[in-house]
Amino acid sequence: MRVRHGEVLLASGFAGIMITLFLALKWAPSVSIDAFASPAAQRIFYWHVPSAWAAFIAFSILFLGSALWVFKRSAFGWRLHVAGSEASLACGLMAVWSGCVWGAAEWGTPWDWTDVRLNTFGLLTLLALFLVLGRQSQPDGVETRDTFSTFGLYGFVLVPITYIATRIWQIRHPGPVIGGGEESSLSSDMGLVLLLGAISFTILIAGHMVMSARITEYEQRLERLQNKVDGRI
Amino acid sequence: MADTLLELDGVTVRRGIDIVLSNFDLSLDGGQCTILHGENGSGKSTVIEASARLLPLEKGEVRHHSIMVHDHEGRRKTPKFPFGLTLQSNGLVPSQTIQKHLETVCALSQSNCDLTPILESYGLSHRRHDKIAHLSGGQQRKVSVISGLIPAMLSEKPRLILLDEPDSGLDDSSIETLKTHINQLRSAGHAILIATHDERLFDCATSLHDLTNEKQNEPTSSEAWENIGTEANNTFLTTKMGWKYNASTLISIQRNWLASLIVIGALLTLVEPLSIEDQDVLLMGFVLAPAFTIGLVGDSVTSMLKEQRAIDWWRAQVNSIPNSNIESFLSGIILTMFSMQLFLQEFDWRIVFIGGLVGFATTFCLRFLQLSTMRLARTNAVFIRLLTPILILPWAMIVEYCVML
């Protein structure tokens, strides 16, 4: 019997995310009341940070796929681009949406146009939305692939800017909680739940990649067969 | 020996998912007329458009007058010598008159001429001051064909002419006129490449090419065309044309200004400016919002040129297409002056100037986004404006800077 790796990874990632949510809401230690204006909302962090982490992985895959298509005309690269843009959109929306909810509770506003990380991450998500919706509006072809892959390449410039944004311009967003030197502060229990969330989201992304690449391959095969029936090949 | 005016060297072009032209070679000397014929989808238009630098090449390069103008690495050089181009979808600007359009074609060839005899030969002289949009399909096609022939008609030196289905929609007498012109221009040493199904035009060809084999042909002999052009200097043509397109159609007023004025009106319905005198950032945001809106609507000339693929016709001729750079700057200045009076009741030339720059820069960015999706099959269906929020943060920073002035 053929093992369906994509489905297995998706199911495992999904289960891990559910466990993370449960632990975040029921088990993870609460933070100091003084540290946050809205301490209960802080638990969104266990969803927000792993989804943002997964979004960065997805953006990297999108970049890799775009580069493979633009420079190597690789069909595999295009499949990575498609899967990467879909995963970027899903994870980006999860991170933005959870951030807006948290921001509304903590800062009193869901969005701040002057915060660099908020804006660059929001733009990356909009880029992913543009790539997904735009691609669906166009017939598949080299023109479509070239155009969207070029946007995928240029859009990746925003990834390092987003990553370092809170280290350089700390406006509303807090500084890094992991890997930020002495300012980083996370208890071991909190870190454990966060780690579980990050691993689960990563597995979910991997599952999506496998599934999406397979679907795109089937679509391409179907199109080739249709063209054969139409006598175009 | 005649110069080689067009060379396609190992050109491979992909359209959609298929390779429609593979390792294709073609060479056209002065005094030759090659007719490309073959079934629909065989790649005739692809050869014409690749020769005009409109399609990206997978392999190979295109040379005009032995100078590389386009290659597979994406390099696009403006041809040193003007060439004639008739696209399958006309490439005309419908809001222009025939006279103005043909004058623009002459200007691109750095020449002037009396257009009356040419227009008379195609039965169009009585419509010369009519807008192209008011003409029938056949008449529009004639204008497009004349546009393709003019660069050779105005030049003593050999010029390249590319005609894609020039016969389509033309009546019998116009076909005869077209044949006469092609023969005369060929005899005068110009090189002509035609894609057509119409066998009536085969008499003009020195060779017939079905995209696989090339066959020599004996064309009808003819007297040579006598040059009717006089030299003229036309610098900053694309900027001037952008201004002219805007002035003749008022398209910037219709699209960009209207949106800005609506924004000002909407802001005035929400707040009484005198009641928020102490909120400097908010008021400055209101002052610079109209200039920002002008740009967010996009470059009106670029949108206008998308009709009938006029933008492609321009892109083939020059690398910089007509634009609204001047209008967007001036509009930004005027609307910022207006909004300053409404919201601040004062005047500061520095903020007015920054308003102009905001209008210009925003329009420039939007034009870049508009043009970056030009190759797509359905440019109006793509969600490119999803990326415009990238401009909000810089605009907010400019507002804060203006408050400090």
Summary tags:
heterodimer; A: 233 residues; mainly alpha; 7 helices; globular; B: 405 residues; alpha/beta; six-stranded mixed sheet; four-stranded antiparallel sheet; 13 helices; elongated
Rg of chain A over CA atoms, rounded to whole Å, is: 20 Å
Task: Tell me the strand percentage band of chain A.
Answer: under 5%
Q: Shape of chain A from CA axes?
A: globular
Oligomeric form? heterodimer
The largest sheet of chain A is: none
Order of helices and strands of chain B: EEEHEEEHEHHEHEEEEHHHHHHHH
The proportion of residues forming helix of chain B, as a percent range, comes to: 40-55%
- 3D shape of chain B: elongated
Low-confidence stretches of chain A: none
**What about the largest sheet of chain B?**
6 strands, mixed
Q: What is the number of beta strands of chain B?
A: 12
Averaged pLDDT of chain A? 83
Q: C-alpha Rg of chain B, in Å?
A: 25 Å
Give the N-to-C terminal Cα separation of chain A.
Answer: 34 Å
- The assigned structural class of chain B equals alpha/beta
Strand content of chain B: 15-25%
- Please state the average pLDDT score of chain B: 90
Describe this structure in words.
The complex is a heterodimer of chains A (233) and B (405). With 233 residues, chain A is mainly α. In chain A, 73% of the residues lie in helices and 0% in strands. Chain A has helices at 5-26, 45-72, 75-106, 116-137, 142-155, 158-168, 188-229. The longest helix of chain A has 42 residues, at 188-229. Chain A is globular. Chain B has 405 residues and is α/β, with parallel strands linked by helices. Helix content of chain B is 44%, strand content 15%. Chain B contains 13 helices and 12 strands. Chain B has helices at 44-51, 98-108, 116-121, 137-153, 172-187, 237-249, 251-270, 280-297, 300-305, 310-317, 325-343, 349-372, 392-404, and strands at residues 4-15, 18-29, 33-36, 59-64, 67-71, 84-86, 111-112, 160-164, 191-195, 207-209, 214-216, 230-231. A 6-stranded mixed beta sheet of chain B has the order 6-8-9-3-10-11, with helices on both faces. In chain B, strands 2-1-4-5 form a 4-stranded antiparallel beta sheet, with helices on one face. The mean pLDDT of chain B is 90. Classes of the chains: A mainly alpha (233), B alpha/beta (405). Chains A and B meet through α4 and α5 of A and α13 of B.
